[in-house]
């Protein structure tokens, strides 16, 4: 039998059912609230690329009931560093991450984004589990937001109000402008190709130069050019059956020109091709190009990497920004979603179901008390989360500003 925390549930609206919107919904459900999620897409085209979940992310996700076994996550225990000119027989620099569990009390997983999204969606809406199942409205674009009353306007002309509205509509948020001065993200001149390659294709090429991939079955491999501004990141997911490959580069290298700077409205990327991916890395050693050539033609996307500055505030009245809508960052340190998961768990901790209990007798006084209490908690949320997320955003964005990239290990003191 389910046991919900005792108290008066808040009615919560969440805009956006990406990784962070769903994690926030799940955390608030488990804190005893009534949660409805409005998502503009119908999830008919889910993006096939993987994400790294560092110990800070896995600790939160496991605490919310996510099961990395069910998601077929691969535990990351080793990073291998290569340079673009290395050929067969050249040794890589290897750093081991197997002591992460001892250090942080949580493991580091490599997981397919669709598997993580499905896990979060299932737990959020499941009739079993702690709290009341969240209601997910697909195909429901939110067009407007009134921060003081907590009211959203939908595409069909209707309006819905709640005690709290959490905006998780991604880097190009269309609702952020109702909360804080409009400061859109802007092009950095860098972009990333992303694809996933079945490991069976790598094994089938057993006469080729792909031995470096086969012997790195469980490792995260980083292949850098001289300045580190072009980089291939290769790691397994789905129990080692699928290889995630990402290729960061200045747009001049892939011939994507201004087109490569197109705004990405949500997590989606734009359609690209193995040929375009190869073009961006044509001076890399043959063995790396052999891997790129295995990219499935229908599954290569190109992501313009946008720079997003710290916002003056994340909150207004009864509303609050979380995830990429609040603090989108470059993927260099694998902390974009992870920082959103930290938002989710912090909010759920600060919004207990006892918050809306009050002693005032009149309804208008009670509404005012509740509104003030919610706003005070959201301010507390911002004071706890904003400086940390901004610091990690600044470190992640270094390459976009022409500064040397931090390596994974350099981030460990703060994750
Ligand atoms: C190349 C690349 C690699 C990355 N690798 C990693 C990694 O290894 N580790 C990591 O932690 N992070 C990584 N990230 C970052 C991570 O993917 C993002 O930080 C994370 O997905 C953001 O989640 P979100 O829910 O905030 O936003 P999104 O995933 O963008 O979700 C926003 C949702 O809101 C919906 N929406 C938008 N507008 C509206 C509206 N008006 N009404 C209703 N719904 C709306 C969208 O349809 C979408 O579903 C990477 C990012 C990139 C580009």
Show the helix and strand layout.
Blueprint: E1 11-15, H1 19-30, E2 34-38, E3 50-53, H2 55-63, E4 74-75, E5 78-83, E6 93-96, H3 100-104, E7 109-112, H4 113-125, E8 135-137, E9 142-146, E10 151-154, E11 159-161, E12 164-167, E13 186-198, H5 199-204, H6 211-214, E14 220-224, E15 231-237, E16 242-250, H7 251-254, E17 270-271, H8 274-280, H9 286-293, E18 300-307, E19 315-316, E20 319-321, H10 324-327, H11 336-350, H12 363-396, H13 408-411
Parallel strand pairs: 1-2, 1-12, 2-8, 5-14, 12-20
Antiparallel strand pairs: 3-7, 4-7, 5-6, 9-10, 10-11, 13-16, 13-18, 14-15, 15-16, 17-18, 19-20
Helix pairs in contact: 1-4, 1-11, 2-11, 11-12
This protein binds flavin-adenine dinucleotide (FAD).
At a glance:
By secondary structure, the chain is of the alpha+beta class. 30% of the residues lie in helices and 24% in strands.
Description of the molecule:
Keywords: FAD, Flavoprotein, Membrane, Monooxygenase, Oxidoreductase, Transmembrane, Transmembrane helix. The N terminus is likely disordered. The protein folds into two domains: 239 residues, FAD/NAD(P)-binding domain; 120 residues, 2-Layer Sandwich (D-Amino Acid Oxidase, Chain A, domain 2). A hairpin with a 4-residue loop joins strand 9 and strand 10. The protein has 13 helices and 20 strands. The protein is elongated and about 80 Å long. The chain has an eight-stranded mixed sheet. Strands 8-2-1-12-20-19 form a six-stranded mixed sheet, with helices on one face. It has 415 residues and is an alpha+beta fold. 30% of the residues lie in helices and 24% in strands. It binds flavin-adenine dinucleotide (FAD). Flavin-adenine dinucleotide binds next to helix 1, strand 3, strand 13, helix 10 and helix 11. Flavin-adenine dinucleotide (FAD) binds next to helix 1, strand 3, strand 13, helix 10 and helix 11.
């Amino acid at each position: 039998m389910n046991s919900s925390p005792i108290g008066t549930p808040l009615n919560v609206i969440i805009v956006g059912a990406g990784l962070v919107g769903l994690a926030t919904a799940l955390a608030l459900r488990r804190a005893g609230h009534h949660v409805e999620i409005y998502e503009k897409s119908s999830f008919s085209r889910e993006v096939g690329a993987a994400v790294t979940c560092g110990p800070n992310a896995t600790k939160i996700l496991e605490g919310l009931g996510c099961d990395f076994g069910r998601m077929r996550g691969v535990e990351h225990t080793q990073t291998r560093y290569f340079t673009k000119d290395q050929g067969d027989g050249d040794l890589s620099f290897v750093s081991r991450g197997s002591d992460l569990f001892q250090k942080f009390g949580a493991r580091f997983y490599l997981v397919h984004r669709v598997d993580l999204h499905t896990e979060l969606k299932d737990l959020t809406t499941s009739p079993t589990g702690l709290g009341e199942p969240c209601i997910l409205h697909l195909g429901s674009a939110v067009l407007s937001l009134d921060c003081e009353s907590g009211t959203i306007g939908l595409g069909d002309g209707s309006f819905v109000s709640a005690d709290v509205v959490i905006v998780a509509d991604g880097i190009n948020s269309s609702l952020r402008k109702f909360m804080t001065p409009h400061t859109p993200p802007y092009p950095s001149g860098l972009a990333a190709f992303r694809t996933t390659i079945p490991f069976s294709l790598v094994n089938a090429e057993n006469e080729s130069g792909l031995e470096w991939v086969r012997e790195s079955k469980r490792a995260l491999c980083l292949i850098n050019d001289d300045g580190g501004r072009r980089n291939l990141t290769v790691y397994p997911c789905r129990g080692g059956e699928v290889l995630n490959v990402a290729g960061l580069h200045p747009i001049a290298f892939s011939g994507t020109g201004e087109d490569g700077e197109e705004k990405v409205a949500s997590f989606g990327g734009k359609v690209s091709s193995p040929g375009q991916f190869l073009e961006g890395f044509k001076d890399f050693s043959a063995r790396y190009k052999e891997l790129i050539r295995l990219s499935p033609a229908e599954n290569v996307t190109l992501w313009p990497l946008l720079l997003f500055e710290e916002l003056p505030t994340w909150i207004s009245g009864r509303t609050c920004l979380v995830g990429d809508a609040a603090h989108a960052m470059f993927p260099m340190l694998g902390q974009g979603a992870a920082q959103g998961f930290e938002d989710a768990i912090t909010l759920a901790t600060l919004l207990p179901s006892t918050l809306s209990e009050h002693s005032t007798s009149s309804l208008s006084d009670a509404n005012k008390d509740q509104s003030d209490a919610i706003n005070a908690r959201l301010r507390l949320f911002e004071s706890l989360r904003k400086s940390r997320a901004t610091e990690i955003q600044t470190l992640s964005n270094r390459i976009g500003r022409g500064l040397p990239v931090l390596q994974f290990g350099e981030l460990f003191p703060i994750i």
